[in-house]
Amino acid sequence: MHAALRQQDVLRLILSFFDNPRWQSTDVGDLANCSRTTREPPDRRNTLLSCVLTCRTFKDPSLDILWKQIHSPFPMLRLLSNFRQLDGKFVLRGQISTEELQRFEWYAGRVRLFQCAATDLQNMDQFVFHRLSVLLGTPIFPGLRALSWELGAPVVLPAPFIASTLESVSIYLQSSTEASPLSLQLDAHALISGTEVILDSLAASSPALKGLHFYGLRAELPIVDATPFKSLQSFSAFKHPRADVAVCSSELLSSLGALNELAHICVHTSRLSFRDTVLAPFRCLAAIGLCGVPRDLARILAALQNSSIDWINLTIDTPDNSMESMFCNAAFPRLVEFEVGPNRKTQIPPSVDTLLEGRRLLLPFTKCKVLETFNVKLKGFIVSITDDEVWAVAQAWPRIREFTWLCKGAPSTPTIGSLAAFATSCLKLTTLALPLNLNVQVTRAPLISVHRLKRLTAYGRWEPISMLRAAELLVTMFPYLETVEVAEDEDNEQRIDRTLNETIRMLQRMKTVFARQNLMSSRPAAANT
Question: Record's superkingdom (predicted)?
Answer without folding.
Answer: Eukaryota
